[in-house]
Amino acid sequence: MDVTCFRDEEAGRESRRLSAKTYNLAITLLARSADGHLFVPIRSMQYMAIIDAEEFVFLDGERRCWVDIAWRNFKPQIRSSLEQPVDYDVVFYREGLSEVMTRLQSEFPTALQALVNKEKLDGSARIIKFRKSSA
User: Do 40 and 55 meet the contact criterion of CB atoms below 8 Å apart?
Assistant: First the structure.
């Protein structure tokens, strides 16, 4: 599926932290996608999240192809554990979206979990064994 999205000029930017559970779930679902993109409907807000390897963008159902908010510059590599939150930048493309951002932080994980609950996994799994370190 091809989707063209547009962005206004950046209206603001701030640093945030995303819970490990949410980040790890999003990346796991993205890894299962065939084309490198994941579409996550956030029905409670009438928003759509589009996830790729670079960023998570959020589109308002009324503005359809215009990005309102983007979560970018994720820094998972600075974590010392998969259970630690991930630092990132939130970029706002319109003024007055702080309330929307607050809601996204609670509704987005719920929408991801809804995808997991309805996803059918076919095929076999592969288990990788790690050698014990001699520390």
Answer: no
